[in-house]
Specification:
Number of domains: 1
Helix content: 55-70%
Shape: elongated
Number of strands: 0
Distance between the termini: 28 Å
Largest sheet: none
Strand content: under 5%
Radius of gyration: 15 Å
Length: 159
């Protein structure tokens, strides 16, 4: 997995530059998240998706001049996932031989990309509203995450 390369110009830049850099980071992470669906072992794909999303949280924090500890980003992803767990069922479908792997991979790929997009948008909104790495409370953004995920599912990403 390769994270988005951030330059000194990305960190502390004006709002438009930050949003552009964050959009690139989210787009890259969505691709990696969809790719995690190709891993044939159900638990391994979940771990890969969590790693991609934790890295995305760190990348977005860096764009806004903050850093999360490794433990903090893992904690954020696990709390955020608690609101979207039903979508991860595609991973379990892979354990069914034959068509289960195909349907599970497609479902998990879509879930992975959509949930990564939603996590990225929630993180950007937090930092754009003046939040910091220390003030982020994942348990308080569950409704916002569900709204982003729902909008993606309806093909209408929130502004």
């Amino acid at each position: 997995m390769s994270s988005t390369t951030l330059t000194a110009g990305d960190v502390g830049a004006d709002q438009e530059s930050r949003l552009e850099a964050a959009t690139k980071a989210i787009t890259s992470a969505c691709g990696w998240s969809a790719g995690a669906a190709l891993l044939p072992i159900p638990i391994l794909d979940l771990a890969a998706l969590a790693a991609v999303q934790a890295q995305l949280c760190n990348d977005i924090a860096k764009i806004y001049g903050h850093t999360f500890s490794s433990e903090a980003s893992k904690s954020i992803v696990s709390v955020l996932w608690g609101t979207l767990v039903p979508g991860a069922l595609g991973s379990g479908l892979k354990s069914i031989p034959g068509l289960g792997y195909i349907f599970g991979s497609v479902a998990f790929g879509a879930f992975g990309a959509a949930s990564t997009y939603a996590v990225g948008k929630v993180m950007v909104r937090h930092f754009e509203n003046g939040g910091t790495a220390l003030s982020f409370d994942a348990s308080k953004v569950g409704d916002d995450l569900k709204k982003e995920f729902s909008n993606i599912s309806k093909n209408k990403p929130a502004a």
